[in-house]
Design goal:
By secondary structure, the chain is of the alpha/beta class. Helix content is 25%, strand content 14%. The strands form 5 sheets. It has a 7-stranded mixed β-sheet with strand order 9-8-7-10-11-13-12. Strands 1-2-3 form a 3-stranded antiparallel β-sheet. The longest helix has 22 residues, at 109-130. Its main location: membrane.
Length: 713
């Protein structure tokens, strides 16, 4: 609350004497009820009362809160009594402000009579205009709030996880006093859409990854497997159901090894790769033993082998990108390049990334939407970061110098072809000094060429192509041992003078074959762009992109303030939704406008991970900062979405939660959409109190699924 100063134009509850209160007709009420006012002990929990004001002062005070308290919390005046200056508004109107009038030093009876008559006429005219009987303003809507929990209107069986309000010593009303039914700003909005359920065939629908639409595009370089978003007239206007029988995933770390079959009802991989120990079907669930084509002893042992070649334990490697699940390249190589006997690729279900987490390394796995539709869904059900994507004709949606390590295990991507375009893209996203790890063909081809059913000449030519491209990138080959080869990107480009191109924002741009330059340095030992602290210190250290001033408008002070701000916000979030503070309740979290990653940074000690999204349209391109902190994320254009709320409903699990910050007028409208989507929602005050226009909407997507088929029943 702003401090009131005892001036002629302001009322101070602290310094003005009882005589001042008498002019406001309070003392008469206190005397009638045998209450004694104490100087300095009256506090009104409300917006500042400014400028000259007579009897309307108390009505203004009452319209912003419900009670008048003394210092010990005792209720002195109820809101109905305070409103003696005229009818108070029935609800909080955010655009309204106290109307300043004047305190007359010598009030006259005729002035008071004129004001009373005018107020009465205005009130009667308002009642007549609305065509209803007069009701007491104090009783009409003082307790009215946006309903916190709406009653489901469909016939689907639902269950909800309640959101707990913050507890305080005094039972204050934390609900927002904004109702869409009371003539406020919300009534000006258009009618809320209806959202019927989609057909069960859309339970795995992904808007820009439709297989039928993809067949219209060129198959060269797998362009048809890239994102191709639907036209406006093709967009679904219904709610995508979860599969019948959907269950909440196993909690981490158990989810690393188990997933419910009902959540991802696909058995294809369990049949095709039964002998490779990737995935097994056991009754009502899948088990992930962690095996793979190139590591029959499991992903954990495979990572230990890598750890014998480079240091995975000292915190210098924190972020990794895994192209290991690009199985679609197998079909392209077999059909287009006519290479016989090409088998499947890598770790379909992101086991490499899953087992790296125990080493404090977080990997971003990506895979296309191919014949095995559930690859990415398997990874997400396991609680492992993954995105649908393919390296084809467009740049990866990550900033330059983002990852400490890149990995490909039998991914069969033609690294040496197309003028080395794919390795050039890996070079762009690797940090200076970062590592590229390759296992599988053509590495160690002299031992495996017969099993791979390829000629020695062919495999040797493929490896020579890769070696030539890496040399052109100035990479150093550190080691090739058994089935693993590792290259390292240089710390700077002082000795690598190739044709270069600066990439400011790679999202949705074409892949190019020119080298992305590293920031300038003054010596051979200097790291381009600045060195990073080891994990976990790098999380709270000033990122080099900020300390070097490469992001206009974002300074070290901005970074520190953002850290403190999100520390406060996350603490508040956990008091409103106490499940956010329960270890294991949430695993996969999406921040739709991450800025500097402060939200994710303040959840780092919880058993969850955050996908930080930076909108392509954002004023500041800060995704590189997020990666320099040891966090992960991607670019996203929300302008692609015709209905963002409907898209949020699609990607949320049943009983998944939602937090939206925004201006109160916007949130009242959003609340209506949330109700139409059958979410359990409430609007709560800002963490700094009820006087802030910015509010928060907390919501839970109610449990509902597609109906069970005859076989399932």
């Amino acid at each position: 609350m702003d401090e009131l100063k005892p001036t002629n134009e302001n009322i101070s509850w602290e310094s003005h004497k009882v005589a001042k209160l008498k002019s406001l007709h309070i003392t008469q009420f206190l005397e009638a009820n045998k209450l004694q006012p104490v100087k300095g002990n009256l506090h009104c929990y409300t917006r500042v009362i400014r400028k000259k004001c007579t009897y309307c002062t108390l009505a203004t005070c009452g319209s912003w809160d419900s009670k008048l308290f003394d210092r010990k919390g005792k209720v002195l005046l109820h809101r109905e009594i305070i409103s003696m200056g005229g009818p108070s508004p029935p609800y909080y109107t955010p655009l309204s402000k106290p109307t300043p009038t004047h305190f007359f030093k010598k009030p006259k009876l005729y002035s008071l009579a004129i004001v009373t008559i005018l107020c009465s006429l205005s009130y009667l005219f308002g009642v007549w205009q609305h065509g209803g009987a007069a009701t007491s303003p104090a009783a009409t809507n003082l307790g009215a709030t946006v309903p916190c929990f709406s009653t489901p209107q469909n016939t689907t069986t639902t269950k909800t996880q309640p959101i707990s309000p913050p507890s305080t010593a005094a039972q204050l009303d934390f609900a927002s006093h904004h109702s869409a039914e009371d003539g406020g700003a919300a009534t000006l909005s258009p009618a809320v859409k209806s959202y019927p359920p989609c057909d069960i065939k859309y339970s795995e629908y992904t808007p820009c990854e439709d297989q039928q639409r993809s067949l219209k595009f060129d198959r060269d370089r797998l362009i048809y497997r890239e994102r191709h978003c639907p036209e406006k007239n093709e967009l679904l206007k219904c709610r995508v159901p979860a599969p019948a029988g959907y269950k909440n995933p196993f909690q981490w770390p158990l989810s690393r090894d188990l997933a419910w079959y009902a959540n991802v009802p696909h058995k294809e991989l369990t049949v095709e790769k039964a002998v490779q120990n990737w995935i097994r079907f056991e009754g009502d669930r899948f088990r992930f033993p962690g095996g793979g084509t190139m590591f029959p002893n499991g992903a954990d042992a495979y990572i230990d082998d890598i750890g014998k070649l480079i240091n995975l334990k000292d915190g210098s490697i924190r972020t990794a990108i895994d192209t290991v699940i690009e199985v679609i390249w197998m079909f392209f190589i077999r059909e287009t390049l006519a290479l016989p006997g090409t088998e499947g690729c890598g770790i379909y279900v992101a086991s490499w990334g899953a087992y790296l987490l125990s080493r404090n390394i977080i990997a971003m796995s990506f895979a296309p939407r191919d014949t095995h539709e559930a690859q990415v869904q398997f990874a997400l059900e396991r609680g492992v970061p993954a995105l649908i994507g393919v390296i084809a004709s467009k740049r990866l949606p990550y900033p330059s110098r983002a990852f400490d390590m890149a990995h490909c295990s039998r991914c069969l991507i033609p690294w040496g072809q197309y003028d080395g375009a794919y390795l050039i893209e890996v070079d762009r996203v690797l940090r200076p000094g970062g590592y590229w790890i390759l296992s599988g063909p053509p590495i160690n081809w002299k031992k495996h060429w017969k099993g791979w059913q390829r000629s020695m000449d062919d495999l040797n030519a493929e490896q020579m192509q890769i070696e030539n491209v890496t040399r052109s990138l100035c990479w150093k080959k550190l080691v090739e041992k058994n089935d693993i080869a590792i290259w390292q990107k240089p710390a700077n480009h002082l000795k690598c003078k190739k044709f270069r191109n600066v990439v400011k924002n790679p999202a949705y741009t074409k892949l190019e074959t020119c080298l992305t330059p590293l920031p300038e340095v003054s010596g051979n030992e200097e790291i381009s762009g600045g060195g990073l602290e080891k994990w976990p210190k790098r999380l709270s250290s000033i990122p080099p992109r900020i300390s070097r001033g490469t992001i206009n408008g974002v300074t070290s002070e901005t970074f520190q303030q953002d850290m403190e701000l999100w520390k406060k916000r996350v603490t508040y979030y956990k008091t409103v939704n106490n499940q956010l503070g329960q270890a294991g309740r949430y695993r996969n979290i999406l921040d739709m406008n991450a800025f500097l990653g402060g939200f994710a940074a303040n959840l780092i000690d919880d058993p969850l991970w955050v996908m930080n999204l930076v909108p392509v349209e954002a004023k500041f391109n800060t995704l590189g900062v997020i990666y320099e902190r040891g966090l992960i994320g991607t670019y996203q254009s929300w302008c692609e979405m015709d209905d963002i709320m409907l898209e949020m409903d699609r990607i949320l699990r049943p009983e998944g939660s939602l937090i939206i910050r925004g201006d109160v007028d916007i949130l009242v409208k959003v609340k209506k959409i949330a109700d139409a989507l059958n979410w359990d929602s409430r609007i709560v005050d800002h963490e700094d109190g009820p006087l802030e226009r910015e509010k928060l909407l907390f919501a839970v997507k109610l449990y509902w699924t597609a109906p069970a088929s005859a076989d399932q029943q």
